Task: structure prediction
Amino acid sequence: MNMFKDFEARFLEAANALKAAGVLPEDLDTGRVTVEPPRDASHGDIASNAAMILAKPAGMAPRDLAEHFAKAFEDDPDIAKVDVAGPGFINLTLADSVWPDYLKSVLSAGEEFGRSDMGAGQPVNVEYVSANPTGPMHVGHCRGAVFGDALASLLDYSGYKVTREYYVNDAGAQVDVLARSAFLRYREALGETIEIPEGLYPGDYLCAVGEALKVEYGQRLHNMEEAEWLPIVRAKSIEMMLDMIRNDLAALGIKHDVFFSERSLIEGETNEVADTIEELRGKGLVYEGRLPPPKGKLPDDWEDREQTLFRATEFGDDVDRALIKSDDSYTYFASDMAYHRSKIRRGFNMMINVFGADHAGYIKRMKSAVSALSDGKADLDIKVCQLVKLYRDGEPVKMSKRSGSFVTLREVVDEVGAGPARFMMIFRKNDAALDFDFAKVLEQSKDNPVFYVQYAHARAQSVLRNAKEALPDLETSGKNLSQAQLDLLNDEAELAVIKRISHYPRIIEAAAHAHEPHRIAFYLHELAGEFHVLWNRGKELPQLRFIVAGEFEQTRARVGLISAVAQTIRSGLGILGVKPIYEMR
Result:
């Protein structure tokens, strides 16, 4: 089903034949040979770098080697033309007969078209969102949530065994601040007039926690010392914040398999953080020393003293990292190391973390930690989602987390819907800033990507309904349509759509390999564009309309093409977590 993998195999066969003929050395590594669509469609259907990659180690000129490859394909019935271009690229134009046969395979595969087994069941842990449980999720969390969820779905679709995980930062100073803020709301619920001091959370969302504490404990908490009430209020606050977070994520169509508690690392049967430090000490990777002051502004957690340090620089980090603070509490990094040690022990040698823009500085230290803890056997990829800038009718929406005036994830979903929000959050590479304009996301025009793609699917469904109404005996499901005379599809716009559909399995594997789900959104936009061109061509040329009176087989073939378009769009939207629209309103 992956045409490009098929032709990659053909190039490798040709390389082996050239080895047997003495043109190439027997021990030549062909692993870097790639096959992809040419950047310019006028150059053909398949392009390969085979000659460019293999020429130098073979001691040949790239164009000379390319000519050898060209001769190897002369008798292939699937290839109409071979061109050697530029310094030695090999471009193939496929025979017309290839495309109806390929479309038949797409229709026969049905909803399984595009699915890959490249992951071979390998376990992979995708940790995303992991926002502190101290308040509602804001629009920045929305982007990371969508990205992580779409990536997890993409990997699952590509044959990996995926665990979606949320790391709950329920230890440390910020949850004590949360508890003290909630305790003020508890006192307010008891009838006191309160004033929220600087440094505590001012949001009204904690009023519900205060009310819940009042119902459960009455006046009892008020009569306790802080050391007594703090753990009670903290536990209740975290519980209710996590419930709110789960509900907000559910509104976006996101559900995690695991919520992993940071506190459990310290308060479980064993102190996993202490064990992690001792394990590293046993490897000679922990020592007592003093760190030089960092350049520029000193961070809040820097201490000019001898302390327990991890030899992070041995694994590519810029400096060694502190594990224990001056008050003998653990640094965040020490807990993070123990957490990733847990992942490794749970069988994950492939891990992906989705970070917000403010955590980009943690990449090297976390990679060094995983390398040290796994003896280089585990791989950690960290994807950073850049900031989201909100606009209303072109005007920026001002937000301040400090004052509590920010747009929540739930507000975005309630205003534009989960599907449009998800698509637009993924319709830009994760490491680039994203502008999100509420009005444009809801605009019904070709300038709105989500509308453009959904309109293509709705149009395709309209054709299928109309075809069934005009020809009651016509089966409009993909597998039934695979028996149509698909060679009747020979217009350039029809062939362009089939060719674009043929790219889908390659896009899936490439996106999964690179951990870049935005490629799916980009591809769907391109496929929708090809389909809209075909639709408009049928309006201009009556003989190219999808439903042709008196031409059952021609109509059946075109309905087959339309069904494949709808099926592919549905599949891609499914990976992105977006429900397809069947009828535009």
The mean pLDDT is 94.
